[in-house]
Amino acid sequence: MPSSLLIFNKPFRVLSQFSEQDDKTTLANYIQAPDFYPAGRLDFDSEGLLLLTNQGSLQHIIASPDFKLPKTYWVQVEGNISEEALDQLRQGVELKDGLTKPAQAERMPEPEIWQRTPPVRFRESIPTSWLSLQIKEGKNRQVRRMTAAVGFPTLRLIRYAIGPYSLEDIKLGEWKHIDPTEELEKEVKHFEQQRKGKAPSPNRRRPSEKRQSGPQRNTIPHGKGVARRATGTKPASRAHRK
């Protein structure tokens, strides 16, 4: 049986959604898996790892920064990144929407990866360098803003890993089913238990019923139960097929 999770190596300039938008390439050009939706997003101009699931709770766990699944990026920046800039990234960078959390940042050699189409613009007078950056939050275009804030604009951005899942053995534009880890399954189970714990008791009266009194109060005939909504988890809406 197929798992509830699949992994995809998203190419450059592909929208992280299935629905069409302005003639841009979407996930529908690559993935044929009904009822699977992205767990989180990856920007149109970024490449690499995207996880998709057909399980709502799993989608929430992966996408939410509250569950602290670290995301590792390979970043090509303009200029030879300095140790001072790396230290700033490690300590946290002040952005317009607040201070980022401390990140893991290390210089790395240029990875042996696919060629980007179109390629990064090459300028002989300005060198480039690569770094590995791991964060545990999800501000909008955060990595690009972080490197720009320390003086090294991002030229190319590849998400290499989310938690225990990585791009290893996944070619560009390919996808495959994978199994959720035991730890991830435990997180999902705990999350679902918490949701059920917040569900109202079947014997708890609605506020409107408590306010009613006397002959106006609605009563339920003896022996008849009250219909309740199912508490099962459903995948996210397909309105935008994200």
UniProtKB/TrEMBL annotation:
Q: Name one GO biological process term.
A: rRNA processing
GO MF annotation terms = catalytic activity, acting on RNA; pseudouridine synthase activity; RNA binding
**Keywords, in A-Z order:** Isomerase
Q: According to the UniProt entry, what is the EC number of this protein?
A: 5.4.99.-
Q: Please list the residue ranges annotated as the Pseudouridine synthase RsuA/RluA-like domain.
A: 5-149
Q: Which domain of life is it from?
A: Bacteria
In this chain, the stretch annotated as Disordered covers 187-242
Q: Does the keyword Isomerase apply?
A: yes
Q: Which NCBIfam families match?
A: pseudouridine synthase (TIGR00093)
Instruction: Report the sequence similarity comment from the record.
Output: Belongs to the pseudouridine synthase RsuA family.
Q: Which PANTHER family match?
A: PSEUDOURIDINE SYNTHASE FAMILY PROTEIN-RELATED, RNA-BINDING S4 DOMAIN-CONTAINING PROTEIN
Protein name (Swiss-Prot/TrEMBL): Pseudouridine synthase
